[in-house]
């Protein structure tokens, strides 16, 4: 996502820098797609970078790449095809000399290919006073079924059927009392079965079925979920202050029994990591549950260490020429 103001001086410099940094020298089969939101809504001046971010985030969410508006033909300077860059436009150029004809020109919205990888986009934006901002945004793929790989239910014996492959969050008392329907995701049992669970991966209580066919019971011990480890960090101006914070945190966690310990862990890790100043002395450790966090606080796991030397700042450009 380029700054792309449409100027004869700025655009060639920017596209040339993009080509040198990210271009795939001549790989037309994998073009680097370049666009600018300014072709759709114009220059929003101080908010132009935010407009580009909004466009990219929406594209990631929808899995679509929007084309440029009102694009006629690419400039001869620089040669885009030399770097494997494809300019997104609405039309199919009929000019055979158009360098963009070496790549596919989408005429409408196109799917954002992932090929099994994370979708990712870079955003350029330049301030009037010389500030250069570059942001890399990638999509987030949440784990929609955070259940353990071990099974809390019944796996149908291979002699009769393929193992079931469904996922169920909660209790699973559902059983089949007659011949099942054709195999679908979540149900795959032998035609001769009479009463078999339809799910092999369950996040809940598994009840032994009444069945005449062979089966194996795997870990029928209630709930099983993946434990997520989080980093818990405290900081202070000196070593003793850091130890005091750790001690107060330990006293608080030992004296309280929260109704939702996992939510407490999430909130605590976020607050300590994102809502506290980063001071010279730091004590940090990771934990997956409240018990392990308490144990870590009781040990030397939270030993304070001094951060590296404070970085020196050379120049700060605000983006406005009158306010350097």
Automatic annotation (TrEMBL):
The keyword Phosphoprotein applies. Residues 1-139 form the Ketosynthase family 3 (KS3) domain. This is Polyketide synthase AcrF1R2A5. Keywords: Phosphopantetheine, Phosphoprotein. GO terms for molecular function: fatty acid synthase activity. It comes from Acremonium sp. BCC 9275. InterPro entries: Ac_transferase_dom_sf, Ketoacyl_synth_C, PKS_assoc, PKS_Beta-ketoAc_synthase_dom, PKS_NRPS_Biosynth_Enz, Thiolase-like. Pfam families: KAsynt_C_assoc (PF16197), Ketoacyl-synt_C (PF02801). CDD domains: PKS. GO terms for biological process: fatty acid biosynthetic process; secondary metabolite biosynthetic process. It comes from the Eukaryota.
